[in-house]
Amino acid sequence: MSDGSDDVSRFTHFRYGQEPQPAEPVPDTLAVPHPGPLSPRGMLISCVQCQATRDWLLIHVHPDMVFIRCRCAHEWRERDLEAHHVTEARNDSFEEREWGSFDEMYRGLGFDGLFRGVYLAE
Prior knowledge:
This protein is an alpha+beta fold. The protein has one domain (about 25-110). About 15% of the residues lie in helices and about 15% in strands. The chain has a four-stranded antiparallel beta sheet with strand order 1-2-3-4, with helices on one face. It starts with a helix and ends in a 13-residue tail after the last helix.
C-alpha cells in the first residue's frame, strides 16, 4: 500500500491541491476559396497590402468570426462578412478536407504568399 507520495510525484506540473484545467477546445474552422470580388455592403473589399480585389480565402471561425486571406498572405478579420457569407460561398463542387495546421492549409490552397500578385482564373 502506498503512502500517497507517489501520486503527487506523477503530477509535478500541477500545483498541489488543484485539479488540472482541461485544455480549451479548438474552435471549428471552415475555409472556403472565393474567386470573385466581395462587396457585402456595396463597397468592394480590397487587400491593403497588394490591392487585390478578388480571389480570397474566406475563413469562418465559430461562432461568429470571419477572416479574409489574400493570395499575398495578408489576413484580416472582416466585420462586414458573416458566417452565412462563407457557407454561401461553398458550392456543389466544394471538396471537404481536413488539414493538420493552418500553415498546411494555406500552402495546400495557395494562400501562403507564393502566388502573391497572381490572379487565378475564375
